[in-house]
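Dear Dr. H.,

I hope your travels went smoothly. While you were away I took the liberty of generating a structure for the chain from your last submission, since the lab meeting agenda had it listed for discussion. I wanted you to have the full record in hand beforehand rather than looking at slides cold. The sequence, exactly as received, is reproduced here:
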Amino acid sequence: MEFIAPIFILILIIVFLAIFFSFVPIGLWISATASGLKVGVGQLVAMRIRKVVPSRIINPAIKSTKAGMSLSLNKLEAHYLAGGNVDRVVNALIAAQRAGIPLDFERACAIDLAGRDVLNAVQMSVNPKVIETPVIAAIAKDGIELRAKARVTVRANIDRLVGGAGEETIIARIGEGIVTTVGSSKSHKDVLENPDLISQTVLNKGLDAGTAFEILSIDIADVDVGRNVGAQLQIDQAEADKRIAQAKAEERRAMAVAQEQENKAEVQGMRARVIEAEAEVPKAIAAAFREGKLGVMDYYNMQNVISDTHMRDAIAGDTSKNS
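The corresponding predicted structure, in token form, is as follows:
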């Protein structure tokens, strides 16, 4: 029983020290003090209470102190609580200081909270970036299609990073400039002979206005000749005209066939009326005999006239065949 009490007290001390050192980052406080950063243990404990990871604040503060910058721990903590990346902001400030780029802490925090990579923006200000556009097709006035690809050298504009348009806008405007330049050329050969026409036109338009970048140069990487769109349009037009002409010819043919059928029907109707009239002749002759208006000799004379008429028609037909 005499040994149990000291052991129990020792266990309590060990548990207390473990809890104390896990809640109070003594090692981080020692590192900060050794680096010349003035921070108290109470500040570290207060960060824990505010659910702030002390290392996310103290380590970037140590880097800024070593770089000769004096940053407020409260501002760093406020940026962390706002959802920002404190370490990236501090790295960007150090890089900007070394490169001689004017960038203050408030602007860096605003750029970071806007969703931009502030460190990448500073690096792009020092080392410009080359943006390669996709192949852009445009048609000259002579109907020849040209397919061009451009390389755009841009530099980040720190002052326009917040609210400025991104790379997609630059690429879209470059495509518009290429289409405008090629479309205004009388011949595609003019563009092939002098590709820098595209660069000059695009640069003169000020395409970087309202964007987060500054265009340094535009280089036409490749220009290829595509389809002869003018000739293709003429072929399509000729094909359409041919189809229209065929449709009209078919319409006229159908109307001619219908007219022919109508004429045949009329001829058949006339023949039917002739046959009907011929059928009435014997009846009329018989009636004339009964009424005494036609004699036998008159009938024979009429038959002779009919026979002579048939004979003359036959002779006339043979003569026309022989000739």
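Two observations you may find useful: The chain has a mean pLDDT of 78. The beta strands are 129-132, 136-139, 144-156, 213-228.

With kind regards,
E. W.
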